[in-house]
Design a protein that fits this description.
This protein has 193 residues and is of the alpha+beta class. The strands form two sheets. Strands 1-2-3-4 form a four-stranded antiparallel sheet. 27% of the residues are buried. The longest helix is centred in the first third of the chain and has 27 residues. It is built from seven helices and seven strands; from the N terminus they run ααβααααββββββα.
Length: 193
Amino acid sequence: LHVKEKSAMNDAKAALTPAQVIGTELDEDENLLWSGIPDRKTYASSNPFRAIFGRVIFIAGAIALYMAHEPMLANPRSPAIFVVMFGIIFTIFGAGLAIKPFWHWWTSPATFYGVTNYRAIIAQTRPWKALRNFNSQQIEMVVSETHADGTGNIIFATEPFGRLRALRAAVGFWGTADPEGAVGALNRLKNGE
């Protein structure tokens, strides 16, 4: 009996709609204008430059570690320790960027989008709860791209990434089933309607 109850609770948790998930985050005077979920494949491939850049940095770090291995074995006090340190940093940083597409693919069933009269919301419920908010001043633009299957990507902001924060990645709703509704809601939010 206990196992059946737990299974029913997991089924109920999995059956939540985007409006229900986003609705739990709303303030009293906030109204949900639009909600949706990402397409798994589209969300995973949302920022290809970041993944390619991460792979290049990862490979550079791995090469540095490989090249420093022999000098470090010959002389542990070798200046190659600096190459090892940079190799470790590059490898970790590059791996973090390189696995981003897999991370997006894995978290897409638990990612929910919403637009209210005060903010755009990207919420994730797996592996831990994460909530990203964008108020009307943070909505830089509203650009949409519709695919042949009717889904679409809506980009509305950019965010810096990397150590120097000089590179920027697109932020938006990826592979939504109702791109026109999302564009309309984001424009209402941006214009303060």
